[in-house]
Amino acid sequence: METSKINSLSQVAEIQLSYRSKVSLSQCPKIACSRQAYSVLLEGWDKDKIEFVEQFKVMVLNKANRVIGVLLLGTGSVAGVTVDVKLIMFTAMKCNASGIIISHNHPSGNLMPSNQDKLLTQKVKEAGQILDLPLLDHIIVTQEGFFSFSDEGLL
């Protein structure tokens, strides 16, 4: 092999897959219903932003439905937030998750999902089916309540 080819291969980025938790799984909340997921999400939501701008979060769970973690994936405007399905799946795969709950807030307080919310839910569900990472719920969060796609039969 030519020296120039060997040198170019040595300058490729190294990829590492790892996950470290600072909390034992027995201390992580176990999610058995949408209300429990909403409680965990609301507890960690920035109270200064929940009625101000839309934010999107991913909750990843292990096989026993224990919360591995919650990631703020995006902050948008008053009327929406852009979400990349690849980043949702990357987050879950990085943690070796067995299930995903996605969520976002509606600053208006309106709990009804938009057509964009429904479309995103379907895209994440389909991606999860391919990767064996089931979408367990999509929860719309407000300060006063929540909407669960799962409870309403929209998954």
Topology:
Elements: H1 3-9, H2 34-44, E1 55-61, E2 67-75, H3 85-94, E3 99-105, H4 115-131, E4 135-142, E5 145-148
Parallel strand pairs: 3-4
Antiparallel strand pairs: 1-2, 1-3, 4-5
Give a verbal description of the structure.
It is a single chain. With 155 residues, this protein is α+β, with helices and mostly antiparallel strands. The chain has one domain (25-148): Cytidine Deaminase, domain 2 (3-Layer(aba) Sandwich), CATH 3.40.140.10. The protein is built from four helices and five strands, in the order H-H-E-E-H-E-H-E-E. A five-stranded mixed β-sheet has the order 2-1-3-4-5, with helices on both faces. The radius of gyration is 18 Å and the shape is globular. The protein starts with a helix and ends in a 7-residue tail after the last strand. The mean pLDDT is 90.
